[in-house]
Design a protein that fits this description.
Low-confidence stretches: none
CATH topology: Rossmann fold
Distance between the termini: 13 Å
Largest sheet: 5 strands, parallel
Number of helices: 5
Order of helices and strands: EHEHEHEHEH
Radius of gyration: 13 Å
CATH class: Alpha Beta
CATH superfamily: Response regulator
Strand order of the largest sheet: 2-1-3-4-5
Mean pLDDT: 94
Structural class: alpha/beta
Shape: globular
């Protein structure tokens, strides 16, 4: 059965690059969101197992989206993918429940390592 994945980034190009970085043999059902508000709505509707979440987005940023998902009882594994690599940002998202933090552009080996560690591959 395919893993339900939500890819959240305001940049269409960034979403496409991340999706292309996913392992070819990983069976996934991918949904995309362009901002945090849309991500929260899709989280409620689809209950994805894995969320790739950017931090800097319009309408609702990644921090706010993660907080909102926590209020709903976050059950997905959230991997933050961001150019904002400040230690304070990483610390905050981990406190909010993110399992990993990946710097843009995405490194496929790093991504694969995280997915293996959490039993997705």
């Amino acid at each position: 059965m395919a893993t339900k994945v939500l890819v959240v980034d305001d940049s269409v190009l960034s979403r496409k690059m991340l999706i292309q970085s996913l392992p070819a043999d990983w069976e996934v059902d991918i949904t995309e969101a362009s901002d945090g508000k849309e991500a929260v709505e899709l989280y409620k509707k689809l209950a994805p197992e894995v969320i790739f979440l950017d931090l800097t987005m319009p309408v609702m940023n990644g921090f706010e989206a993660l907080e909102a998902m926590n209020q709903l009882g976050l059950e997905a594994d959230v991997i933050v993918v961001s150019a904002d690599i400040q230690p304070v940002a990483e610390k905050r998202v981990r406190e909010l429940g993110a399992i990993a933090f990946i710097k843009k552009p995405v490194s496929t080996p790093k991504l694969v390592s995280i997915l293996i560690d959490y039993g997705y591959l």
